Amino acid sequence: SRQMLRVSSAPLCFAGKACFASKAAQFKVCVSGGAGGIGQPLAMLMAMNERVKEVSVQDVSMAMVPPAGVAADLGHMEFPSKVVGYAIDPSKPAVDQLEECLTGCHLVLVPAGVPRKPGMTRDDLFAINAGIAKGLVDACAKYCPEAVIGIIVNPVNSVVPAMAELYKKKGLDPLKIIGVCTLDTVRANKFVSVMTGTSPMDVAVPVVGGHAGVTILPLFSQDKIAATIPADKIAALDKRTQDGGTEVVEAKAGKGSATLSMAYSGARFGGKVLDGMAGVPASEYCYLASTVTELPYFSSKVDFGPKGVVKVHDIGVLSAHEKVRLEEAKAALKLEIQKGLEYAKTC
Ligand code: NAD
Ligand code: LMR
Fold it and tell me: What is the mean pLDDT of residues 336-347?
């Protein structure tokens, strides 16, 4: 169905027997933070992707559920993928503990880290989450330097520049480090579909810029259904898309941020990356090193191919509202990028 196409051109297979006959499973995927709120359902969705032969569920030894337990649970589903759990001691370097977990990985999805509570910004998470991401990215550089690393952990706007610069310092390709902003597109699509009484499957709103507050810039003018929304409703729709994460943080009242919609979005992103690797052209809006604007990092449409990123697209024609918002987004994003670059300098 079209809904499945959103996640991958290889359908999520609920017909397990058909899967067992399939030769499509060829990729190894790691979910770091795989025992967490996002990690568990994300590992499940990746284990259900027909292109996936193995999932590493990686987390720390004192995780809420032992990674081996998550793996044992997922390993009983009737899919071809093998699921293995890996627990690390976070007081010791991740790089010394993750050889088997990461060797052979094509895609590493990183929701490992701390989520925000009401009243916090994503930026407040930088100090702790950048350190967690660095340990994992150092290990990826050693054991799977060709893998695409999908950074989900916040603040994406600063963590991605920090990690991409670290990859550059090691002589590796910074375009392997990609910030996952799919949830912003997913939210914009859903909000537009509800407002217009259409199917979310028929809506595809580009969201560019970054993944926090005003840096989240939905381009409603570029989607044919969203473009029919009266101009006086756009500012509020834009704001709701910017504040989608906060809406969930407040509704969860101190018990975390978006997990299930993020797992869906992470699986959609991961599915597209694996499509590209399998030779099936695929694209997604995501945040990475970029020359599309004067900023060194920016989110726009990215095409995936056999080795990951093949093309980063321009942002196209903007409405008057979007032009004003672009300037606002760039001003905020510039500072958040700077924070990531400084972190990388001091490492
Ligand atoms: P969570 O606390 O439920 O899970 C995080 C997991 O990471 C935990 O299981 C924890 O043990 C694990 N972890 C900590 N250090 C680790 C390490 N060194 N190695 C491996 N695992 C480690 O949190 P969550 O709700 O899953 O959110 C995770 C992150 O994702 C947060 O930073 C949150 O802000 C972010 N997030 C991003 C988006 C996005 O759109 N990019 C959306 C939602 C949440
Ligand atoms: C989101 O957009 O849901 C995430 O970035 C989590 C958050 O802190 O809002």
Answer: 97
For ligand 2, atom 2, the nearest C-alpha belongs to 245
pLDDT in tens, 304-324: 999 999 999 999 999 999 999
Q: Is the CB of 272 under 6 A from ligand 2?
A: no
Q: Which of 76, 106, 211, 313 is catalytic?
A: 211
At residue 10, the pLDDT reads: 54
What is the per-residue pLDDT for 347? 86
Which pTM was predicted?
A: 0.96
211 is a catalytic site residue: yes
Ligand with minimal distance to 109 CA? 1
Rounded distance between C-alpha atoms, residue 6 and residue 57, angstroms: 24
Nearest CA to ligand 2 atom 1: 245
Q: What is the mean pLDDT of residues 223-230?
A: 98
Confidence band (pLDDT; 50, 70, 90) for 24? Answer: confident
Q: What is the pLDDT of residue 20?
A: 44
Do the Cβ atoms of 271 and 3 come closer than 8 Å? no
CA–CA dist 221, 173 (Å, integer): 34
**Residue 14 burial class via C-beta count within 10 angstroms: exposed 0-12, middle 13-18, buried 19 and up:** exposed
Scanning the structure block, which residue is given the tokens 């809506």? Answer: 203
> 298 pLDDT band (50/70/90 cuts)?
very high
Among 168, 153, 181, 155, which Cα is nearest to 37's? 153
Residue 344 backbone phi and psi in degrees, to 5: -65, -35
Task: Give, in order, the Cα–Cα distances in Å from 235 to each of 305, 322, 325.
Answer: 36, 10, 10
CA distance 196 to 54: 41
Q: What is the mean pLDDT of the chain?
A: 94
Nearest protein Cα to ligand 1, atom 39:
152
Residue type for 333, please?
L
Q: Is 279 left (phi over 0), alpha (psi -120 to 50) or beta?
A: left
Rounded to whole angstroms, how far apart are CA atoms 140 and 143? 5
